[in-house]
Amino acid sequence: MNRRDAFRSLMSFVSASPLFAQSADLMGPVNVHEFEALAKQKLHKLAYDFIAGGVEDELTLRANREAYKHWYLVPRVMTDVSKVDTSVELFGVKAPAPILVAPTGGKNLVLPNAEAIVARACAKTSTLFCTGSGAERAIEDGTSIHWWSNTTGQPTKESAQSYARRIEERGAKAITVTVDNQYQSNRDRNNRNRFDYGYMSTGVLAEDEKRAPRNPAKAAMWQPHTPNLTWDYIDWVRGATNLPVIIKGVLSPEDGELAVKHGAHGVIVSNHGGRQQDGVIATIDALPEVVQAVGGKIPVLMDGGIRRGSDIVKAMALGAKAVLVGRAPLWGLACFGQAGVERVLGLLGAELKLDLALCGKANLGELNAKMVRRIG
pTM of the entire structure? Predict the structure, then answer.
């Protein structure tokens, strides 16, 4: 095969991907960064700040992005990449790319019934959807989707097991437990905007509406979620369901070891998108030690700061089985609704496939830690 034929072969499998093919009217933004810029123009300031913002000085929010600039790829050459496979299997479900939509609050700040809209976009692109509630309405509408239920936990064994049985009956493929949300965090942008947490279900006011906020954010800090959550929770849930239980919010290698010890089926290296505690380690910097601590016994996933296909390649070379994206699909949602979510997922999937090929690898299983180097 000559160079021109190889190039045509590469472009044919990229452009033919259902993750990439989208309508021509969405060709304005050409990457996730441009989607965010456009979304900022379209969204109410309260909504944009809620989604884009982090906690306090936003050190960790910025670190999640900045850390990728210190990890550099070391490609291999002279390998046959005329065919490249980015598919992945997670707990019995095969997806065309190792990209999941992460659980994010505040989708209704963007559009009414937004969880169901995102669920339909995930169904259209065969993307796994991790959500607190939104998949169920889409399923009721006839949408066929693979979804994981996300929870911050329940305070008692009885309530935890009731939740687990209910979620399994409704068709979830796994349970993720977000474990770094013991209390509501101190988010300066929301406090400054006097963000009303009632907006989470109703959407923000139109610009010409004058009603004062009902529940300004100054009262939200220290609001408890599940501060009594311990490792016993895994035993509670596993006693009531056959679903995989995945722990989201792990940064310490010691907690990775404990997750394995207590029977978790997987962990997600996450700092809540820089929205929960400021000054904690960036996720891609935390990833290698957690992977080492887990020792291949259970899969390790990662979220935080994913904006490019090369970010995904770096994470997977460092041992992640897949990644979750939170803000990026919301920028697509704000710009073009369901089609925008599909477009964002398509861009990330296409970039991933191209970056994998340019690294000289024909599938994700060929990635390894020798292909990345931390500089600076």
Answer: 0.90
